Amino acid sequence: MLSPDLVRAQRRGEELKLTALAGAARQRAEQIALAALETAERSVGRPRQQLVAAWEQLPHSAKEQRLFAGILKVVEDACDFAAQPELDAERIRRALFEEAQRQRSGLEPGHAFSREAVLERVAAALELPAARLDEAMYSDLRGEQRLNGVEPLSARELLERYELGQLQGILLRAVRVTAEVWCAAPALYRRLFAKLKFRRLMHQIERLDQGSYRIVIDGPYSLFESVTKYGVELALVLPALLECNRLHLVAELRWGKDHRPTRFRLERSSEACPAGANDAEHPWAPPEVLALVEELRALSSDWQVTTNQLVLDIPGVGICVPDLAFENQRDGRRVFLEVLGFWSRDAVWRRVELVQSGLSERVVFAVSSRLRVSEQVLEEGQSGALYVYKGRMSAAAVLRKIEALAAASG
Fold first, then answer.
1. Is a pLDDT exceeding 50 seen at residue 280?
2. Of 26, 183, 329, 392, which is most buried by a Cβ count within 10 Å?
3. What is the pTM of this model?
């Protein structure tokens, strides 16, 4: 993705408008993209800093600087850089510094310190040519990383990534994002909702007419901390929103050096469904949920656990998309688990309202103790229960909650 300073956009009143990349401007962008890709391909095996120096020699005008820098960022993201695996730079530095210190402390009056003697002694100990030690000493630094390869991209494909990167860069300055979506395949909704949770985004989902949904997502600039990390997570969910057949997105931003309130609008429409749209399973579960599944399956119980595929809806109240589904193999009882984790207290109260409004399915809501919510908020006999945990979820405790809710709610 691109940082906001690389986004080619202008404010017009309270609206932010992307500068169109069309006609002659697009042809010029393709030329820059092709030159940058070819330069990278010729630089395979060389240090990153040499590639960057070669890119800086590519011709471009001052007016093209932001476009040029943005395209280079996308090409750099398509490059595979790594330190040379056979060289342990930290070990080499330590050996060189220790040997230099020994030699300096043992110098007799009138004798000069010999850098070459240090290199030769360490090279012999590490079984490396002395000539390689200078290069190897800092081989783990970013500029010294070697280019192993470049993704096989055409200039057109690279510009598609560039345009996506611009949209993602805009969302890095979002206070709130409201997206109205419609999908031809129900599995696309499940995949989108799962990715929202996988990215740990604080959001609300509301069903609209004709099977569409409105999703309101808190942006990074609505928070007091972790702005950068949360903003990246929001930007990374954009491809899932763009997979929807119809998308109407409004982002409330803090844009520019003055962080002035600004709006950005995006409309997309497509008849095609992406590959895998009808897949029954999805891998988009947070790591802590996947770890919990493994622990649950290792326990001996009558409950079979699977990733959930249902969207639970109370019209006029809200929507709940649990993470896991539990089915009792003896009597067929079904209970769901939704992991709210470190979401907000408001998210917990919205789930409480769902239960109190008549949620038809049994759901246990797992909440971090940091949110300071009591399990007693939901009374026995209701269709929902809270499981408050410290640190990490316990598979045994989750099973106890599942069994208790199944028994108490009949």
1. no
2. 183
3. 0.75
